[in-house]
Amino acid sequence: MFWNKSSSQTTDTALLDDFIETSPIPIAHLDADSHITGFNKAFHELMQRSIAYGSNIKLISMLSEDDQKLVSVRLASVMKGQTPQDALELCMLLPNEEKITVLMFMSQMTSHDDDSPHVVIHLIDNTEQKNLEMRFAHSQKMQAVGQLAGGVAHDFNNLLTAMIGFCDLLLMRHPAGDPSFADIMQIKQNANRAANLVRQLLAFSRRQTLQPKTLDLTDVMAELSNLIRRLIGENIELNMVHGRNLWMVKADQGQLEQVIINLAVNARDAMKEGGTLTIRSNNVLISPDHPIDADLIPPAQEDTIIPGEYIQVELIDTGCGIPKHLVEKIFEPFFSTKEI
Fold first, then answer.
1. Contact partners, residue 297, CB within 8 Å, separation at least 6
2. pTM over the 0.70 mark
3. Residues near 133 by beta carbon (within 8 Å), at least 6 away in sequence
4. Exposed/middle/buried for residue 128 (C-beta within 10 Å: 0-12, 13-18, 19+)
5. pLDDT tens digit sequence for 10-68
6. Which residues lie below 8 Å from residue 177, measured CB to CB, with a gap of 6+?
7. What is the pLDDT of residues 279-338, one digit of tens each?
8. What local confidence, expressed as pLDDT, does residue 206 receive?
9. Integer-rounded Cα radius of gyration of the chain
């Protein structure tokens, strides 16, 4: 339906119609005003079946203002008989509000019915490649930041080692009961806290190997509670609810603390007007008789949790929540709904 045909070409044209309809490349037919007058199955699926056959939708209505100008200029030139070779990279907003990135090729066709010029567009979904490019650029940036953090952390760690060593020497001269003992202990405790921060920087820069060890989760959470309270601010109430007789866990303490802190900060950002953050822990037994909660979403489809004894840590806030269509993206390392 997009090309000239004579009576002697009817069979070949019908075959070509089938090729276009079954083509994996989305193809659509536009008039001079960019109305979508026809499309194949791949185009229909790319639009996630949000465009009905016979609907009077303009292609440029799905584009940003800048892209609308580009397409309008390209469409006018193609209608005049020009055949541009380069593709337009466009961001399309589908009727279901999902954004996709496409490469668009335009060419002119003449209808066999009225000999009026029409435009055929071919689209290539470039969304995944653009996402990969963004992730690659982000990973390079994170690698540079990690190298910087690792270098600073090593130098700072040397200074802290000296500070803690001199504190130990002073404690030998000023034992408990000495007026200076409390001040020296305060300096040493702060230096040890700084050393923990350095450990987290080294873990961030991937220069520190994981050191899993047996931990009492209640003690770990109790140590973190003061830091979390400072992070979330005064307008957010923090509730810590620990299960009774919690089992011991084997984990890297630095990474465990970092995960809890990150989740707490995200919860704070979701409660702009204040609210309540509840951190709850309890024992969980996973077995054929006690399967994992069906509402829980794994980081990836291939990830499974083998039966056994676990501790479940929940961070619950009274904020805006996560839309259902974004829940499956929360484990993507570079996905964020926050401003750049």
1. 327, 328, 330
2. no
3. none
4. exposed
5. 555 667 777 778 788 888 888 878 888 888 888 888 887 667 666 678 888 888 888 88
6. none
7. 999 998 888 888 777 777 766 666 777 888 999 999 999 998 888 778 777 776 667 777
8. 57
9. 31
CA–CA gap between residue 148 and residue 142 (Å, rounded): 10
Model confidence at 239: pLDDT above 60:
yes
Write a three-state SS string for the chain. Answer: CCCCCCHHHHHHHHHHHHHHHHCCCCEEEECCCCEEEEECHHHHHHCCCCCCCCCCCEHHHHECHHHHHHHHHHHHHHHCCCCCCCCEEEEEECCCCCEEEEEEEEEEEECCCCCCEEEEEEEEECHHHHHHHHHHHHHHHHHHHHHHHHHHHHHHHHHHHHHHHHHHHHHHHCCCCCCCHHHHHHHHHHHHHHHHHHHHHHHHCCCCCCCCEEECHHHHHHHHHHHHHHHHCCCEEEEEEECCCCCCEEECHHHHHHHHHHHHHHHHHCCCCCEEEEEEEEEEEEECCECCCCCCCCCCCCCCCCCEEEEEEEEEECCCCCCHHHHCCCCCCCCCCCCC
Question: Rounded mean pLDDT of the chain?
Answer: 81
Higher pLDDT, 177 or 55: 177
In the structure encoding, which two tokens stand for residue 72, read together? Answer: 């309008």
pLDDT of residue 268: 92
pLDDT at 5 exceeding the cut of 50: no
Q: What is the pLDDT of residues 200-209, one digit of tens each?
A: 667 666 555 6
